[in-house]
Amino acid sequence: MSDTQYLDWPFLEVHHKQLAIDLDAWATRHVPHDHGADIDTECRSLVRSLGQGGWLRHAVGGKHGAAAAIDTRAICLVRETLARHSGLADFAFAMQGLGSGAISLQGTSEQKERYLPRVAAGEAIAAFALSEPGAGSDVAAMQCNAHVEGTHAVLNGEKTWISNGGIADFYVVFARTGEAPGARGISAFIVDADTPGLEIAERIDVIAPHPLARLRFSNCRVPLSQRIGDAGEGFKVAMRTLDVFRTSVAAADLGFARRAMDEALQRATSRKMFNQHLSDFQLTQAKLAQMATTIDSAALLVYRAAWQRDQGRNVTREAAMAKLTATEGAQQVIDAAVQIFGGQGVVSGETVERLYREIRSLRIYEGASEVQQLIIGRDLLKGLAASEGKP
Ligand SMILES: Cc1cc2nc3c(=O)[nH]c(=O)nc-3n(C[C@H](O)[C@H](O)[C@H](O)COP(=O)(O)OP(=O)(O)OC[C@H]3O[C@@H](n4cnc5c(N)ncnc54)[C@H](O)[C@@H]3O)c2cc1C
Question: Considering only CA atoms, which of 278, 256, 268, 274 is closest in space to residue 334?
Answer without folding.
Answer: 256
